[in-house]
Specification:
Layout: E1 2-11, E2 14-24, E3 29-33, H1 40-47, E4 55-60, E5 63-64, H2 69-74, E6 76-79, H3 91-101, H4 106-119, H5 135-146, E7 153-157, H6 165-178, E8 183-187, H7 191-197, E9 200-205, E10 208-214, E11 224-233, H8 236-243, E12 249-256, E13 261-269, H9 275-284, E14 289-294, H10 299-307, H11 311-344
């Protein structure tokens, strides 16, 4: 459905996107993650044809986004972080306008309009001016325009920004429903949202692909993917001596509590499970275990671990990337204006 090959975007000497390669299949919900300035928005803008690439290719539903832009863009519904709505239109007028732009056959428009307004829950504000809507409702209207025409690919940038908890649940359910017939790409800073909705996650950093895999497979890419939390009765030195003989322990920390109990955190390499060895070692040392819990890594833990070495540098690069993008867009506009003047002459 989506195939990206050797995608590169340069702004002068700065490489915003560095030879990205990935494929997204139909029905997949892909979570697109990365620190600020990592190249997420630049990549999404190239996927939609909004900005040009320096190198590489993007194919949507079999059509190259730049060689066959009209056919490729028919297959894309896009919700940017700031919904592209017109405040002086009513919701109904705006969605009809989007249908005109997307060339939806007239015979299909009434049924599609009704269906989309019901699915995004904007029917009750259909005849209100968009300027008078709350931020949450504007976000819903933006999502409604993204699915006008029922595109094969739906790209959502921060789709739940400004929504209340109930609305977030409703939008998540809608996204899951969309995946039955569409390919969905979501960029979000809310990692719990990604882990809740997406089946696959792609993390990029400094414009490069760090990892792309199913959510449940991500821990295997870390050196430490399993962590035990124990509550043990006994002397810290005695406990440490008992555990020192166990192979595979990469991390061992203690937090002395009350009543002689000690909280112990044990990190292991890869998916190594040392619970049985820990039990017998502490039993032999006569250090009773009051509790033992598996402290599995969350998506947030994995994300921070994979990007922690570059987070600080991202802040500076993000500002440079934004300025360069604005300059690049301005150059494209000037070039198009010049071409139009030449045609008129």
């Amino acid at each position: 459905m989506i195939e990206v090959k050797n995608l590169v975007k340069k702004y002068g000497d700065h490489v915003a996107v560095d030879h990205l390669n990935f494929t997204v299949e139909k029905g997949q919900i892909l979570g697109f993650l990365g620190p600020n300035g990592a190249g997420k928005s630049t990549t999404m803008n190239m996927l939609t044809g909004y900005i040009s690439m320096t190198e590489g290719s993007v194919t949507i539903n079999g059509f190259d986004i730049y060689e066959e832009p009209e056919e490729a863009k028919k297959a894309i519904g896009y919700l940017p972080e700031m919904p592209p709505v017109y405040p002086d239109m009513t919701v109904r007028e705006y969605l009809k306008f989007v249908m005109d732009v997307k060339k939806v056959p007239r015979g299909q428009r009434a049924a599609m309009l009704s269906d989309i307004m019901v699915r995004t829950q904007v029917s009750d504000v259909a005849d209100r001016l968009i300027r008078h809507l709350s931020k949450g409702y504007r976000q819903r209207v933006g999502l409604a325009q993204a699915i006008v025409g029922y595109p094969e690919v739906v790209i959502l940038d921060e789709p739940t920004v400004g929504l209340d908890p109930m609305q977030i649940i409703e939008i998540r359910d809608l996204i899951k429903e969309l995946a039955r017939k569409h390919t969905v790409i979501i960029s979000s800073h809310i990692l719990s949202e990604i882990s809740e909705v997406c089946d696959t996650v792609m993390i990029i950093n400094k414009g490069k692909l760090v990892v792309m895999d199913r959510v449940e497979n991500l821990p295997k890419y870390l050196e430490r993917s399993m962590r035990l939390k124990l509550l043990v009765l006994g002397d810290e030195a005695k406990i440490e001596a008992a555990l020192s003989s166990i192979n595979g322990i990469e991390e061992l920390t203690f937090d002395r509590g009350e009543d002689g109990l000690t909280a112990i955190f044990i990190g292991t390499k890869g998916s190594l499970d040392v619970r049985e060895e820990v039990f017998y070692a502490l039993a032999s040392a006569r250090c009773p275990i009051y509790s033992m819990n598996m402290d599995s890594l969350s998506l947030e833990d994995i994300f921070l671990e994979m990007t922690k070495n570059n987070v600080n540098s991202m802040k500076v690069q993000s500002e440079e990337n934004l300025q360069n993008m604005e300059n690049d867009m301005q150059e494209q506009i000037l070039d198009e204006d010049g071409a139009d003047e030449g045609e008129e002459e």
